[in-house]
Amino acid sequence: MAGSVREITTQLPVAVYAITGGMLVAAMPDAIAFLSRLVVPIAPGIEAMRDILLGGHALVSLPTGWGLGWLPAQPLLITAAGVVLFNRFERLARRRGTLGRP
């Protein structure tokens, strides 16, 4: 019971950040919205959902963000960056001899 409350407590702020971060991108100036779409990974998906559900737009003609091409490309780019960073930090930990230590 205590573990699930702790999980909810830690995940709730992350969920609120992700949802509000994605919804507020459309109201930002263009340059800041561009940076936000790069920094906040969930922002383009939330923008697309908002445009489809509230704006009545089709998936292929999204007016915000980078449209349909950016939606599948972004998770692939984030995954690739994560794999590269993981491998680099793993090599660094092995070199320093700290990989197996708690």
Overview of the molecule:
The chain is mainly α and 102 residues long. 73% of the residues lie in helices and 0% in strands. The protein is built from 4 helices and no strands. Helix 1 (2-24) packs across helix 3. The two termini are 27 Å apart. The model has no long low-confidence stretch (mean pLDDT 76).
Global morphology:
extended
Helix content: over 70%
Reading the helices and strands in chain order gives HHHH
In terms of structural class, how would the helical and strand content be classed?
A: mainly alpha
Distance between the termini: 27 Å
| Strands, count | 0
Q: Main beta sheet, described?
A: none
Strand content: under 5%
Q: Helix count? A: 4
Radius of gyration: 18 Å
| Uncertain runs | none
Which descriptors would you attach to this protein?
4 helices; single chain; mainly alpha
Please render the helix and strand layout as text:
Elements: H1 2-24, H2 30-39, H3 43-53, H4 67-96
Q: Can you summarize this structure?
A:
The chain is mainly alpha-helical and 102 residues long. It is built from four helices and no strands.
